[in-house]
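User: I'll paste a sequence; please echo it back and then give the predicted structure.

Assistant: Echoing your sequence first, then the prediction.
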Amino acid sequence: MPTVVAFETLTELFLNLKKKYEGSAKTAFARKPSTDADYETITWGEVGDDVNALAAYLVKHGIEAGDRVAILSENRYEWAVFDLALQLIGGVNVSLYTSLPAGQCKYILQNSEAKMFFVSTGIQLKKAREVFGDCEYLHRVIAFDKPNIESYLEDPHVVMFDEVMAEGLKAYPGQREEIHRRTKAVEPEDLATLIYTSGTTGKPKGAMLTHRNIVSNIKAAHQQIEISEEDRCLSFLPLCHSFERTAGYYAMLAGGAEIYYAESVDTVAKNMTEAHPTIIMSVPRLFEKIYNLVTKSVDEGSAVKKKIFEWAQSVGDRYASGERGLVAMQKKLADRLVFDKLKERTGGRIRFFVSGGAALPAEIGKFFMAAGLHIIEGYGLTETSPVICCNTYGDERMGTVGKVLPGVTVAIQRLEDSSIAAEVSGEDYPTELDSEQGEILCKGPNVMEGYWKNDQATREMIDEEGFLHTGDVGRFVKGNLQITDRIKHMIVNAGGKNIYPGPIEDLFKTSKWIEQLVMVGERRAYMAALIVPDFEALESFAQKDDIAYSSFEELIGKEEVQKIYRQEIRSHSRELASHEKIRDFRLIPNEFTVETGELTPTLKVKRRIVEDKYGYLINDIYDDGES
């Protein structure tokens, strides 16, 4: 579906949207002023005024075209104003994850040579003040929220956002001509943003994405997915991540959709019922949690409730696969008895979800499809702006990430000899193609310019033919790309067998007892796992069976609990090859979180961190089993 305005740069996207909706009551964004308040909508006219005011302030205080300006903030309206104002004057957005410690913030600010730093809450302002003196290019910190600590306000380098906007509003008439000149000067090849990698294997690297990179991806995505002026997106994935930035922000704006901001990741369930979105961008973890909540409720219900649920799911599966007639009538009954309740929990208006950031377990995708809640799964990297492939509505292939985007080329490179097993262009698509497995390579206008001030890392990522090496392993199945795992995640056991843990771990994500699972077994005689239990399910079990405990650590050591997990491991391992089966495990008494370092901001497990942190448990497994 075409975009609602024409544009070749992000600057033009904003200007043409502002012009299109000028004088109308069209909603651009919505936010909640407080927890108990209703959503407050913001029109395009209000957005235009705010962006102009901030752009005037930036120009007045010396921000030139190409200058880097950093932001450390959760998703909120001010984030969009910041970004649009920067794109208007040719600045470069440097976005930081709010979970980053002060030391990593300092490195990114130093490396990018950021001149200003916008922060959200008092917690983030504390980090900014801590590192300010070590960042030679930084001359101002702008805080969105008034901090509780009065001394922060006495810092001469700190300015409140409200003051900035008031000053910018007054300055705009005098800066209007210069801002207009800047907007005309922005070219597609100009740098739009630096998005830094998480840095789990070294210092963070800044992926340089140009206006052309991102715009090409927006337009290609619109050819695959329908986004219209009637749509409303609930935004909660970090905007500093390229998936939410392109798909949940720019692509939504380009379709004329409204963007509603969730209060936080923790309030998404509540905000869905308040915002009534039609589209939601998410990572698989949200779908896994919803699935486990539903199945747990069914398991704890009566035998009749279980039979109704199983019947409804069977009907939903048949309907999703194309059966009609009697099945269509049965589906209406299944919706009334089972699935309508689930749809109500998502706000009642969902057209589709978009899943990215990690592989979606096929079983969970099929469950949502049976319920009539479509999940369009996509695949990409920060370095590819980010989308490489995606499924399309009505043609979802669970277990794959769909077809290559228009304008993009994907190659499969054999791991053993680096030869090319398959090469597919988004324009000329072999729909029946099956290929060997290998590393996924990507070429196209969406591929980054390189890493900021890091030519060596750029050469390691992009070869002489312009192919970006993703580090992911996959293959084509009936013309759709299927992701196997990351090359660096591959486990080689003591017998020399190569094992990709991702698909195996996905098998266990449908268990109501398992919150997270990480396979281990490098150079070992057999596979094992570290398991984070679903503590809510365990608490319910302990209460029902009168099991006394004083802590989760004590609870997971109980023989009754250990028995549950032995049965789960045995049951889910039946489908696996002998060398892939999990033979032993250890339970962990706390969840993996972003704050404690085991998860990335998009909720993917940092395997090396987990293995280092819980190395004593891994050693305990193999000391028992290999001695």
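The two ends are 62 Å apart (CA to CA). The chain has a mean pLDDT of 93.
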